[in-house]
Write a structure and sequence with these properties.
- The chain is of the alpha+beta class and 91 residues long.
- The chain folds into two domains: 1-28, no CATH class; 39-91.
- It is built from four helices and two strands.
- It has helices at 22-26, 31-38, 40-62, 67-90; strands at residues 2-8, 14-21.
- A two-stranded antiparallel sheet has the order 1-2.
- Helix 3 (40-62) packs antiparallel against helix 4 (67-90).
- The relative contact order is 0.12.
């Protein structure tokens, strides 16, 4: 797949045209990295859901209302940690 890149000036006059290969643009993402990109939503949502579930269980067991907030907090920390691990794999 080939595309064209146009370079224009302030008056929108075409100064130069270049042909670019669009396949090279997407060749940066490798197959093993594509799996990580597709699973980002799972890596973000799972720790928060587990934290809320455990917080609700502890709240029902101790008859309190504060452990759900702690579960959300620690779930969010886990989500940020997962994203950090993914970021390190792309470097």
């Amino acid at each position: 797949m080939v595309g064209k890149k146009f370079i224009v000036n302030k008056n929108f006059e075409i100064l130069e045209t270049k042909t670019i290969d669009k396949k090279k643009k997407f060749a940066i993402i490798k197959n093993n990295q594509l799996g990580l990109i597709l699973n980002i939503g799972f890596y973000l949502a799972t720790p928060i859901i587990i934290g809320v579930f455990l917080g609700l269980l502890i709240d029902n067991w101790l008859k309190t209302n504060s452990f759900v907030l702690l579960g959300v907090f620690f779930g969010a920390l886990g989500s940020f940690y997962n994203i950090y691990k993914i970021y390190q794999k792309f470097e």
